[in-house]
Design a protein that fits this description.
This protein is α/β, with parallel strands linked by helices. The chain has seven helices and nine strands. The chain has a single domain (12-191), classed as Alpha-Beta Complex (Spore Coat Polysaccharide Biosynthesis Protein SpsA, Chain A), CATH 3.90.550. The radius of gyration is 15 Å and the shape is globular. The strands form two sheets. Strands 5-4-1-6-8-7-9 form a seven-stranded mixed sheet, with helices on both faces. It has helices spanning 39-47, 62-65, 83-93, 111-120, 146-154, 160-166, 187-191; strands at residues 12-17, 33-34, 37-38, 54-58, 71-73, 98-103, 126-130, 133-142, 170-174. Helix 2 links the parallel strand 4 (54-58) and strand 5. Mean pLDDT is 87; it is low at 1-7.
Length: 200
Amino acid sequence: MPFPASTPLRCSVLLLAGGRGQRMGGQDKGLLEWRGRPLVAWLYELVRPLGDDLILSCNRNAERYRPYADRLVDDGDDAYQGPLAGIRAGLAAARCANLLVLPCDAPRLDRPLLDALLARAGEGPAAISCGGQLEPLFSVWPKSLLAPLERAWHSGERSPQRLLRQWQAATLECAADDPRLANLNTPQSLAEPEAHGPGT
């Protein structure tokens, strides 16, 4: 099926760069270079045309990240409680009715894929799925989910994947080895000419 030619949904965008970077020896992933530029710069270039509400979630190096966003948010504590903490902060800050959520370490993403994902969103959330496995860091969250997300958070929920399943997220099916979804989150993946699949 051909991808849509234009984005059907106005959205805020959240780039997640708030993790510990454990696979990178504690380094801040978004600021590591790939092909001569920080990883976050590739995402910034891709999503900048989508609108004027670009949010970046980071828990350190705020001044270095500032050029890559309209606004910065953080988790509100130093416990590094996972990506849902960043999504929660981003959703609270979003000015549009929908929030496109992306990781900072997927520089091979392209606009047709983002447009196809946004086309799946509506009143409910949407996410990319690979072989039946939801990829919650490639997703769209309606602002209307902020209140139920807050309730889930305060009840102890920390899994964005579980929430997206609970809320019956619409899915965009992609091949498990789609190179556009490759996370460059290890020193080896940054050095390799090619990477394969989400989470590799």
